[in-house]
Amino acid sequence: MQQRETVIVLDFGGQYNQLIARRVRECNVYCEIYSYKTDLQVIKEKNPKGIIFTGGPNSVYLENAAACDPEIYTWGVPVLGICYGSQLMMHQLGGKVERAPEREYGKTLVHVNPESKLFQGVNKDTICWMSHNDYISQAAPGFAISAYTDNCPVAAVENAEKGLYAVQFHPEVLHTQEGTKMLHNFVYNVCGCIGDWRMDSFVETTIQALRNKIGDGKVLCALSGGVDSSVAAVMLSKAVGKQLTCVFVDHGLLRKNEAEEVCQVFGPEGNYELNFVCVNARQRFYDKLAGVTEPEKKRKIIGEEFIRVFEEEAKKIGAVDYLVQGTIYPDVVESGVGGESTVIKSHHNVGGLPDYVDFKEIVEPLRDLFKDEVRQAGRELGIPEYLVSRQPFPGPGLAIRIIGDVTPEKIAMVQDADAIWREEIAKAGLDKQVNQYYAALTNMRSVGVMGDERTYDYAIALRAVTTTDFMTAESAEIPWSVLGTVTSRIVNEVKHVNRVLYDCTGKPPATIEFE
Ligand code: GLN
After folding, report:
1. Is 70 exceeded by the pLDDT of residue 387?
2. What is the pLDDT of residue 349?
3. Quick check: 389 pLDDT over 90?
4. Which atom of ligand 1 is nearest to the CA of 59?
5. Which pLDDT belongs to residue 1?
6. What value does the mean pLDDT of the chain take?
7. How far is the CA of 189 from the centre of ligand 1 (A)?
8. Residue 56 near residue 50 (C-beta atoms within 8 A)
9. Beta partners for 196?
10. Residue 340: its pLDDT value, please?
11. How much is the pLDDT for 345?
C-alpha cells in the first residue's frame, strides 16, 4: 500500500478516543489509533503528519500515570493534547498540573484567542465540553495561554513555533460547538495536511489492491445481509467477480422480507457478479431453539449453528484461498490491537471463525473503516440505499427480540409488528431523527376484549431510541398520534396481539436490545 497521509491518535484510555479519529477523518484526513505504550520508533515509522493525545482517567502527577516518550515533543511533528493529553504535555514540559479547586463538567463557555492557528474562524466566546478534575495551574515555559474559562485559567496553551497545542476541553465531542473547526484547523493549518482521505478513492485503490493480492485465487464470503458484509462482498465481487462465492445463511430470524431482499440484490437476478448461495436453514435453527428461554444460550446456539451451516456449504465448494471477514475499525480497536481499550472482545461477523473451512488467509477489506465510512463506501459501490443505511441488527436476529422461547409463530408476530412500526415511523418522517427502532415480543399475555369477546393474547413492546454512539441512548419522544396509529394497526393486523407498550427506558439503565 502506498503511504497515506496519516494523523495518529495516541490513546491514553479516554472515553472518546474513537470519536477523535472519526472527526479527523470527517476532515478527509486518515487517522489511526495507537496505545500510548506504543514505542515511539513504531510511531515514527508511520510517518504521521500530526499526533493527537486523547483524554484519560489518570492524574498526570501520580506515580505510574500513563505517559509517553517526551522525545515526541522535539521530534518535529505537531502534537495536539486533549484533556489528559494537554495535562500530560504540560507536566512533561515543566508546567504544573494539580487538583482543580472547582471541577468542570459539561458545556462550558470558553474564551479563546482567535489569533491562534487552532482557533482561526472560531468565535471568541465559544461553548466547549469539559470533563476534568485536575487542571493546568501553570503553563510550561515557552507556552502561551490561548483560552481560559471562569474556573480554568489555562483552557488552552500553545507553543506555535514548535507545533505544540493543548486544550483542556474535548473538541471531538459534538457539544463543543466549534470542535470540528478546531480539529480541522489543527490538521490543515498546523500539520499541513492536504486531505486525501476520500471514500471514492478508497474504494478504487482497495479494489485494485484486492485484485493484485488475490490474483486468480478463490474467495469465500459469509454474507449476513448486514451493511458490513454486503459492502465487503460487493467490493470483492468488483475485484475478482466469479472467483468469489458468497454464502448467505437464512436462519429465519431476520426482519420481514429481509432474506428475500438480500437474495434479490445478490442473487442471479441482481447486479453483481458473484456465485451466490442461499441456504434456507430456518427449520434447523427453529429446531435447535425450541424451548430455549435463556438469552445467552439462544445467542450461543445461533452463533454455533451459523458456523456449522456455513462449514457444510464451504465443504461443497472445496478448498479456497481466502476467507472474507467484514471486520471494521472499531472491532480492531476494541479487540485491543490499536488503542488502549480494556475491553477485549473477539469480533467476528458470524460469531466466530469456522474450524473446518479450508482457507489460507483472511481478507478484511473494511478493516480501516468506521461504520459511517463503510456506508459511504457502499454508496460509492452503488449498493441500494435501503441496504446501506440499514439500522444495526443483532447477529442472533429476532431471537433476542422475543423474550422467552422462540417459535415460528412468534417470529411472524414480531416481523409483522416491526414492519408496521418501521413503516409508520418512516411515514411520519421520523426515520432520520430516531437512530434505532424496532418491535419486540414481550412474552407477556394479558386479557383483552375484541369484538365483545374475551382475548388472552400477547403484548408487543415498541422501542425507539436516539443516540450518537450506541453506547448510551435515550428513549425517543414519538408523537402520540404516531403511537396511536401504530397501536391500532398492530392489534388489528397482527393476530394474537391485544396490547402495545412503549419502552420509555434509556441506556443505561436498560440496553437498546431486550436480551
Ligand atoms: N483525569 C484527568 C482529570 O480529571 C483528565 C480527564 C480527561 O481526560 N477527561 O482532569
Report:
1. yes
2. 39
3. no
4. 1
5. 45
6. 92
7. 27
8. no
9. none
10. 54
11. 33
Give 7's strand partners: 31, 50
> Which residues does 139 contact at the CB level (< 8 Å), separation at least 6?
90, 95, 145, 154, 157
**Residue 62 carries which DSSP code?**
S
Instruction: Give the CA distances from residue 334 to residues 56, 126, 345, 350, in Å, rounded to whole numbers and listed in that order.
Output: 16, 33, 7, 17
Q: Ligand 1 pocket: which of 9, 17, 87 to mutate (most atoms <8 Å of CB)?
A: 87
User: CB-based burial of residue 510 (10 Å sphere; 0-12 exposed, 13-18 middle, 19+ buried)?
Assistant: middle
Q: From the CB of residue 217, how many other CB atoms can be counted at a distance below 10 Å? A: 15
Task: Tell me the three cell numbers of residue 96.
Answer: 504544573
What is the share, in percent, of the chain residues with pLDDT greater than 90? 77
One-letter amino acid at 304 equals: E
Q: Please give the Cα distance from 80 to 54 (Å, whole number).
A: 9
Give yes or no for a contact between 225 and 254, defined as CB atoms under 8 angstroms apart.
Answer: yes
Backbone angles phi, psi at 410, to 5 degrees: -65, -40
Would you say 221 and 349 are in contact if contact means Cβ atoms under 8 Å apart? no
| CB proximity list for 215: less than 8 A, separation 6 or greater | none
Q: What is the pLDDT of residue 326?
A: 87
Task: Give pLDDT, residue 474.
Answer: 92
Measured in Å, residue 103 CA sits from the centre of ligand 1 at 10
**Protein residue with its CA nearest to atom 6 in ligand 1:** 132
Q: Which atom of ligand 1 is nearest to the CA of 57?
A: 1
Ligand 1 atom showing the smallest separation from residue 131 Cα: 9
Under the banding of pLDDT at 50, 70 and 90, the label for residue 343 is: very low
- List the grid coordinates of 230: 454486503
Nearest CA to ligand 1 atom 5: 84
Domains and CATH numbers, the chain: 6-190 (3.40.50.880), 199-388 (3.40.50.620), 407-502 (3.30.300.10)
* pLDDT given at position 350: 38
Q: Active-site residue numbers?
A: 83, 170, 172
Return the pLDDT at 353.
59
Strand ranges for 213-329 from DSSP E = 219-223, 244-250, 275-280, 322-324
Split at pLDDT 50, 70, 90, the class of 187 is: very high
Range 469-489 average pLDDT? 91
User: How distant, in Å, are the alpha carbons of 42, 196, 224, 225 from that of 381?
Assistant: 34, 19, 18, 16
In this prediction, residues 388-396 reach a mean pLDDT of: 87
* SS3 at position 457: strand
Our mutation pick for probing the ligand 1 site, out of 53, 60, 83, 97, counting the most ligand atoms within 8 A of Cβ, is: 83
Closest CA to 427 of 467, 478, 393: 478
Spatial separation of the C-alpha atoms in residues 30 and 36, rounded to whole Å = 19
Measured from CB, residues less than 6 Å from any atom of ligand 1 are: 14, 55-59, 83-84, 131-134
DSSP state of 392: P
How high is the pLDDT of residue 123?
97
Regarding beta strands 453-466 and 436-450, do their DSSP bridges make them parallel or antiparallel, or are they unpaired?
Answer: antiparallel
